[in-house]
């Protein structure tokens, strides 16, 4: 059963929204507090987010007060924007850091530019993000879309774009961080005036999707006002990032008949039920449950089978534990009601 978490398992995701698909108006927390250098472009970014709120029909709440980071308050928001928040470890208490990290791991976060500049003030956040500012330089350079990005739902835009920016280099390469997809790299050879510190392979935009449902987007761009005022590449990219992050946890499917499949196990919303298919041979067991280990439904049988389960009433991320010839695996399904 799900409570036996001492047994080693592999957790993988099925791209599915379980019974409830998040939609409509929602709240975004725009945090622009700083513990170090204060970029003036944060104000321009606030205005840009206000314009997105009108177009997208969402509520954006702006604040510099770290007191917003409590579990109770964060529960109101679907996405947190970290608006060039330098050295957050200096201004967040231990409890506030814990609350924000819990949000990051299970919900949606969009961070840009100086939110990657923590100067060692918050190692847990930096490790999760996958990169920390080492140095920077300014000038005109080209960014290129990664050709290997398989998930077309990830934020993106043109294959290339060229503009003026303060370009960050990072102490570690985010490409090596867990669950990270690099979306754009900066072409160091394209820089005028040697505007960039050298990394060789130079990721500048990436996204992290967690098996616990969290989605985090980070972009190194955001130093200059024009990034939010006039540069269509970043204005479009950040809107898409907000939309992508808002689906954190839900993993919403686009059509009721869509079927998500991984490792011989499929899942599909069908009317008011959840249909689970098992393609393996021999004995198998399926347990629908919560991340906390509570069992909601159990089915077992032999050979290929299809089971129809009622939509569970539990809220929060749901899991499907499968036991078959290949071993036991836990798969994140998405949100309950």
Q: What labels would you give this structure?
A:
337 residues; alpha/beta; Immunoglobulin-like; Rossmann fold; 2 domains; nine-stranded mixed sheet; 18 strands; 18% helix; globular
What does this structure look like?
- The protein is of the alpha/beta class and 337 residues long.
- Helix content is 18%, strand content 36%.
- The strands form 3 sheets. It has a 9-stranded mixed β-sheet with strand order 3-2-4-5-10-9-8-6-7, with helices on both faces. Strands 1-18-17-14-15 form a 5-stranded mixed β-sheet, with no helix packed on it. A 4-stranded antiparallel β-sheet has the order 11-12-13-16, with no helix packed on it.
- Strand 4 (79-83), helix 3 (94-106) and strand 5 (108-112) form a beta-alpha-beta unit.
- The longest helix is centred in the first third of the chain and has 16 residues, at 41-56.
- The relative contact order is 0.18.
- Residues 1-11 and 250-257 have low confidence and may be disordered.
Topology readout:
Blueprint: E1 10-13, E2 27-31, H1 41-56, E3 59-63, H2 71-74, E4 79-83, H3 94-106, E5 108-112, H4 123-129, E6 133-145, E7 160-170, E8 180-187, E9 203-209, E10 215-219, H5 226-229, H6 232-246, E11 260-262, E12 265-270, E13 273-278, E14 283-290, E15 295-302, E16 305-310, E17 317-324, E18 327-335
Parallel strand pairs: 1-18, 2-3, 2-4, 4-5, 5-10
Antiparallel strand pairs: 6-7, 6-8, 8-9, 9-10, 11-12, 12-13, 13-16, 14-15, 14-17, 17-18
């Amino acid at each position: 059963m799900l409570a036996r978490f001492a047994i080693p398992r592999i957790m993988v995701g099925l791209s599915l929204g379980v019974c409830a698909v998040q939609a409509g108006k929602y709240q975004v927390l725009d945090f622009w507090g700083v513990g170090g250098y204060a970029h003036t472009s944060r104000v321009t970014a606030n205005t840009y987010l206000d314009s997105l709120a009108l177009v997208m029909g969402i509520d954006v709440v702006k604040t510099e007060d770290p007191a917003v980071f409590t579990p109770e308050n964060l529960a109101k928001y679907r996405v947190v924007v970290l608006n060039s928040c330098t050295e957050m470890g200096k201004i967040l208490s231990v409890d506030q850091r814990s609350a924000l990290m819990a949000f990051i791991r299970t919900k949606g976060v969009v961070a840009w530019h100086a939110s990657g500049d923590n100067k060692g003030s918050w190692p847990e956040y930096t490790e999760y993000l996958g990169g920390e500012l080492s140095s920077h330089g300014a000038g005109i350079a080209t960014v290129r879309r990664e050709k290997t990005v398989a998930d077309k739902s990830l934020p993106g835009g043109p294959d290339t774009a060229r503009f003026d920016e303060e370009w960050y280099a990072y102490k570690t390469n985010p490409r090596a961080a867990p669950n990270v997809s690099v979306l754009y790299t900066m072409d160091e050879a394209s820089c005028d005036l040697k505007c960039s510190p050298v990394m060789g392979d130079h990721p500048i935009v990436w996204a992290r999707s967690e098996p616990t449902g969290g989605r985090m987007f980070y972009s190194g761009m955001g130093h200059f006002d024009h990034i939010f005022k006039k540069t269509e590449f970043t204005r479009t990219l950040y809107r898409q990032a907000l939309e992508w992050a808002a689906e954190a946890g839900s993993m919403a499917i686009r059509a009721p008949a869509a079927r998500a499949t991984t490792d011989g196990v499929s899942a599909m919303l069908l009317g008011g039920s959840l249909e689970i298919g098992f393609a393996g041979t021999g004995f198998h067991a399926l347990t629908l449950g919560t991340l906390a280990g509570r069992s909601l439904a159990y089915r077992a049988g032999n050979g290929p089978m299809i089971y129809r389960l009622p939509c569970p009433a539990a809220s929060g991320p749901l899991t499907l534990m499968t036991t078959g010839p290949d071993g036991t695996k836990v798969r994140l399904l998405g949100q309950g009601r």
